[in-house]
């Protein structure tokens, strides 16, 4: 079973010393025994640092995902970001939001929605 809900906290994503994304409007997706995944609105992401790639994947519970690499300061994290642009209806809340692989970026959770 997959659930989504507002994260109700600040989510900050950094790569190579630069904050790439920061949001108090993120959603958290929880799926069985997997760690929670935070999905951020594109308006809270430095989209100019992302490079869309040709990589795609398919999840029977979420649909087709597209991927982005992050480039900053001569460093690149290939396919470090993914998005379900047209997800399956049961997870429509994550449509066009962006998620980041925690082993390719630094993700800080906390600080409260009021900060």
Explain what this protein looks like in three dimensions.
The protein is mostly beta strands and about 120 residues long. It has one domain (about 1-110): Domain of unknown function (DUF427) (Metal Binding Protein, Guanine Nucleotide Exchange Factor, Chain A, Beta Complex), CATH 2.170.150.40. Helix content is about 0%, strand content about 50%. It has no helices and 10 strands. It has strands spanning about 1-5, 10-15, 20-25, 25-30, 35-40, 50-60, 65-70, 75-85, 100, 105-110. The strands form 3 sheets. Strands 6-7-8-9 form a 4-stranded antiparallel beta sheet, with no helix packed on it. Strand 4 (about 25-30) and strand 5 form a beta hairpin. It is globular. It starts with a strand and ends in a 6-residue tail after the last strand. The mean pLDDT is about 95.
